[in-house]
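User: Can you fold this complex?
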Amino acid sequence: MFSMQAIGYVKSPYKQAREVPKGLGAKHEAEGVLEIFPEFELGLTDIEGFSHLFVIWVFDRSERFELLGTPPSDNRPHGVFATRSPRRPNPIGLTVVELLRREGSRLHVRGVDMLDGTPILDLKPYLSSVPPEQLRRGWLAEAEARA
Amino acid sequence: MFSMQAIGYVKSPYKQAREVPKGLGAKHEAEGVLEIFPEFELGLTDIEGFSHLFVIWVFDRSERFELLGTPPSDNRPHGVFATRSPRRPNPIGLTVVELLRREGSRLHVRGVDMLDGTPILDLKPYLSSVPPEQLRRGWLAEAEARA
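Assistant: Here's the predicted assembly.
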């Protein structure tokens, strides 16, 4: 077992899961703040040079996992590791956000899909993208084609 | 505190950290296997439709963290959250791999930069990329320009 601790919390406009946009074509353009604890502020040095960040966080209001589930963007079940379901063996979330500005240990970002108060485990710079022409998107592309 | 458990292990050609390509222009094209425990195999259903996956894993051989450090790709120190340093408050790694094929609960992938035996916490489908023209890459772009 590995013990992880919050390095801060997300300030988000979403108080409940049903408020977060979901399903095919859902856009995540909400603004929020990554409030990092002051004791970790030194670790943010030079982060403002990056336009996008990976945020690794905890689905802290998810209570169990299911290996097979039907996501909001399809009417067919898929394996949890082929979806972004909150009901995961380790309840870890991953979101790419755009960094708008930094105020000390507060990072103002766009693209939050986390609930208000979500614990943050880590931040990493977004360094490169897979070219879209190399991406295959499995069941999601099929669901989009059917829609 | 949040307790996380391994869902499997990475089989990698790298036995020690010094073998992993590092620094400016390092390429990660090594092949490896994500060996997921059989009890989680159902969670892999339909994953083979995706060309790329996010792998969330543990730097299990990293013993401490430092908030400021000098990465292999630069000669100047940066905050840990602006780098991919293993010495993080939560020793979580994130790697994008290309999925080559699935054999039951074994995923053959390209692009591993983890050590052999690294514990895996989660897998997620890679669904979309930030367009390169929208990316700013801070100190890394500056280090590349100086090189």
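The longest strand of chain A covers residues 92-103. The first helix of chain A runs from residue 138 to 146.
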